[in-house]
Write a structure and sequence with these properties.
By secondary structure, the chain is an alpha/beta fold. About 30% of the residues lie in helices and about 20% in strands. The chain contains 10 helices and 15 strands. α1 (about 10-20) packs across α6 (about 120-130). The structure holds threonylcarbamoyladenylate (TXA) and magnesium ion. The site of magnesium ion has 3 residues, from loops. Threonylcarbamoyladenylate binds near residues 60 and 118.
C-alpha cells in the first residue's frame, strides 16, 4: 500500500494525483480525509465509489485561503466572515450557498456547499499545491469508524486510494463542527472539534438544532454511523466485567479491569484527550476477539457533545 510521509516531494506527487483526477488520503487535525479535486465531477465520483458512500450524502470542500471561499460559494455576510476569521483554519465547517462551478455530485444536488479550512500543515500544503479546492469526506468505508491514523485508512480503503499521506495521529481526533446560518439564525448540523459553547460565546447566538423539512444535511439523519463491527453498549459507569467483552472507560476506573481488552479515553477525564483517543481506542477494541464493547458515557458539555454524538450513533447499529 502506498503510505508515504508528508515530505515536500510527496505532497507534490499527491497534488499531481489530485490534478489528474485521482484520490489521495491526507491528514487533517480532525480525521484523515479522502481527497479529490472538488471541481472535477468524475474525480469526486471516485470518492463515493471508494467509500461505498451513498450519493445523497454531500462532501465537505477544503480550501487553503479564506479568500478562496468566493470561488465556490456566494460571498458570505459579515457574521459568517467574522466566524471564518476567528475559527479558520481549524475544525469548523460552514455551509454556504454554492456557486455553479461546484459539481452537483459534490453537494448531492443541494444548493449549498460545506466549506472548511483545515489547520494541519500537510492538508494546507496539499490544497495549495493542487491549486484547486479538495472535496474530502473522512477516509473510512461508509458508516464505519473514522480514521485517525494512516493505518486506519489503509485497512479500510486499501488499494482504492492512489496515495496515503501519513502525518501521524490526528491531534483533535473527531470531525469538524458543522454549522449553517440561515435567515440570521445559527444551526448546529453536527457537533465536532469546536465546542458549541465556544461558537455561542464568540457570536452571542444560540446554536439551534437542524432546521426541519430540509433534505438530509448531516450524518445525523442516518440511523447509525461511525460504527465498529462489534456491538457497542453505552452505560453510565462500567461496574462489572464479563467474558468476551471489551471496555472503553472515560476516566481511570477505580475497580480492577482486564487491561488487554480495555482502553481509557483520558486518565483524568480531560475531554480534549478523550476526543483525540476516541476513534483509535474503538479501532483497537474492535480488532479484538470479543463480542461487545461496553462504553462509558462522558459529560455532555464542551467536546463531550461531539463525543456523545459519535458514541450514540455507534451504539445504534444493533438497535
Ligand atoms: O473534520 C471533518 O469535517 C472531516 C475532515 C476530512 O475534514 N470530514 C468529514 O467529512 O467529516 P464527512 O463526509 O465524513 O462528513 C461530512 C458531513 C456529511 O455527512 C454531510 O452530511 C455534511 O457534512 N454536509 C456536507 N455538505 C453539506 C451541506 N451542503 N449541507 C449540510 N451538510 C453537509
Ligand atoms: Mg465521515
Amino acid at each position: 500500500m502506498n503510505i508515504v510521509n508528508t515530505t515536500e516531494e510527496n505532497i507534490k506527487k499527491a497534488a499531481e494525483i489530485i490534478k489528474n483526477g485521482g484520490l489521495v488520503a491526507f491528514p487533517t487535525e480532525t480525521v484523515y480525509g479522502l481527497g479529490a479535486d472538488a471541481l472535477n465531477p468524475v474525480a469526486a465520483a471516485g470518492i463515493f465509489e471508494a467509500k461505498k458512500r451513498p450519493f445523497f450524502d454531500p462532501l465537505i470542500v477544503h480550501i487553503a485561503e479564506i479568500s478562496h471561499v468566493e470561488k465556490i460559494a456566494e460571498k458570505p455576510g459579515p457574521k459568517v466572515l467574522k466566524l471564518m476569521d476567528r475559527f479558520w483554519p481549524g475544525p469548523l465547517t460552514i455551509v454556504l450557498s454554492k456557486k455553479d462551478i461546484v459539481p452537483d455530485i459534490v453537494t448531492s444536488g443541494i444548493p449549498t456547499v460545506a466549506v472548511r479550512m483545515p489547520v494541519h500543515p500537510a492538508a494546507l500544503a496539499l490544497i495549495r499545491a493542487a491549486e484547486t479546492p479538495i472535496a474530502a469526506p473522512s477516509a473510512n468505508r461508509f458508516g464505519c469508524l473514522s480514521p485517525t491514523t494512516a493505518e486506519h485508512v489503509s485497512s479500510q480503503l486499501g488499494d482504492s486510494v492512489d496515495m496515503i499521506l501519513d502525518g501521524g495521529p490526528c491531534s483533535i481526533g473527531i470531525e469538524s463542527t458543522i454549522i449553517k446560518i440561515m435567515n440570521n439564525r445559527f444551526y448546529l448540523l453536527r457537533p465536532g472539534g469546536i465546542a458549541p459553547e465556544e461558537i455561542e460565546d464568540f457570536t452571542g447566538e444560540i446554536l439551534l438544532s437542524e432546521p426541519q423539512g430540509e433534505k438530509p444535511e448531516a450524518p445525523g439523519q442516518l440511523p447509525y454511523h461511525y460504527s465498529p463491527e462489534k456491538q457497542v453498549i453505552l452505560t453510565d459507569k462500567i461496574t462489572r466485567i464479563e467474558e468476551r467483552s471489551g471496555y472503553l472507560f472515560f476516566r481511570s476506573p477505580d475497580m480492577s479491569y482486564p487491561e488487554n481488552r480495555s482502553k481509557i479515553l483520558s486518565a483524568n477525564g480531560d475531554l480534549r484527550e478523550a476526543a483525540a483517543n476516541l476513534f483509535s481506542h474503538l479501532h483497537r477494541l474492535d480488532m479484538l476477539d470479543i463480542d461487545k464493547i461496553y462504553v462509558e458515557r462522558v459529560e455532555g458539555s464542551g467536546l463531550g457533545v461531539a463525543i456523545m454524538d459519535r458514541l450514540k450513533k455507534a451504539s445504534m447499529k444493533y438497535i
